[in-house]
Amino acid sequence: MMWYWGSGMHWWGWLLGTAGMVVFWGLVLGGIVALVARVRGAGSTPARAAEDPERILARRFASGEIDAEEYRRRLDTLRGRDQMSHAGH
User: Fold this and answer.
1) What are the Cα distances from residue 62, in Å, to 49, 55, 75, 82?
2) Which tens digits make up the pLDDT trace of 3-52?
3) Whole-angstrom distance, CA of residue 71 vs CA of residue 77
4) Cα 72–85–80 angle (5° rounding)?
């Protein structure tokens, strides 16, 4: 003969089941978010490509890649001065 006491599961059983389900779905959603962030991050442009053109030019001048005349000419072009000086001709 089998003895059956109460409604089956005690309060702690429900609590553990609920907590386990919350943790499980939290891990699943966290994994999906991390995967999406990683995939998006792989397709983005490198930080150096997003750098300001004037800073790149200044860095090239400072490292000796270009001389002062080339630096000034390119800086004027970047700032639009070159186009304005040629507009009147």
Assistant:
1) 19, 10, 14, 22
2) 656 666 777 888 999 999 999 999 999 999 999 999 988 765 555 556 78
3) 10
4) 60
Query: What is the per-residue DSSP string for 6-70?
Result: TTSS-HHHHHHHHHHHHHHHHHHHHHHHHHHHHHHHHHSPPTTTTS-HHHHHHHHHHTTSS-HHH
Single out the residue of 52, 47, 46, 49 nearest to residue 75, CA to CA: 52
24 is written with which tokens?
A: 């499980």
Rounded (10°) CA dihedral 66, 70, 73, 77: -40
